[in-house]
Amino acid sequence: VLFRSDRGFGGNMKTLFKAGLASGADFLIELHPDNQYDAGDIPKLLEVIGAHRHAIVMGSRFIPTRNAIEGGMPWWKFVANRVLTFLNNRLMGARLTEFHCGLRVYSGEWLRTVPIDTLSDDFKLGFETIALAIADKRSVAEIPTACRYFDEASSNPFAGSVKYGWGTLTESFNVFLFRLGLGGARLRVF
């Protein structure tokens, strides 16, 4: 698939989603290309999503929690992830061990119902898909995965991480309002 690399992470993902769905894909795989995640986990993700009707199956660096530390996750990312995950779960009524992993499989059947063009062109797109699945009352599952942190691996810079974190909180609050029937204009029941 040819795509413009200047569209940002989310913009590129939207291009790939559209191309995959147009080709009739049953599942779409997201694997960040920096060698932090093990592509060997993809068969397990596909097995879990194929055996159930999940909207998304994600790898989790926090099953068990010590995996993130053992993989070399910087302490500030560990703390930020734990705080964000706690708040995201509380606001959205979810029970995930994390929302921010770069290894996922999406159901093509479900993704075809998502208004892809309304999603973010930055890193927040991954979180938005989870929020939409939760608002749609579709299941999101997790499997344990390892993640390696090393100098050559890409990483969202601190300012980008703050922007992303704030974006997940506003999106979580939107789902919270939607669950209460008080708003959530960007969300719709599919």
Strand residue content = 5-15%
In helices, the fraction of residues equals: 40-55%
Spans of at least 5 consecutive residues whose pLDDT stays below 50 are none
Radius of gyration: 16 Å
Q: In whole angstroms, how far apart are the ends?
A: 28 Å
Average of per-residue pLDDT values:
88
Number of strands: 4
Order of helices and strands: HEHEHHEHHEH
Q: Could you say which overall geometry the principal axes of the C-alpha atoms support?
A: globular
* Structural class by secondary-structure content: alpha+beta
Strand order of the largest sheet: 1-3-2-4
Give a quick precis of the structure.
The protein has 190 residues and is of the alpha+beta class. It has helices spanning 8-22, 42-51, 66-70, 75-92, 108-111, 124-135, 158-180, and strands at 27-31, 56-60, 103-107, 140-144.
Describe the protein:
This protein has 7 helices and 4 strands, in the order αβαβααβααβα. The longest helix has 23 residues, at 158-180. It has a 4-stranded mixed β-sheet with strand order 1-3-2-4, sandwiched between helices. It has helices spanning 8-22, 42-51, 66-70, 75-92, 108-111, 124-135, 158-180; strands at residues 27-31, 56-60, 103-107, 140-144. The model has no long low-confidence stretch (mean pLDDT 88). By secondary structure, the chain is an alpha+beta fold. It is globular and about 35 Å long.
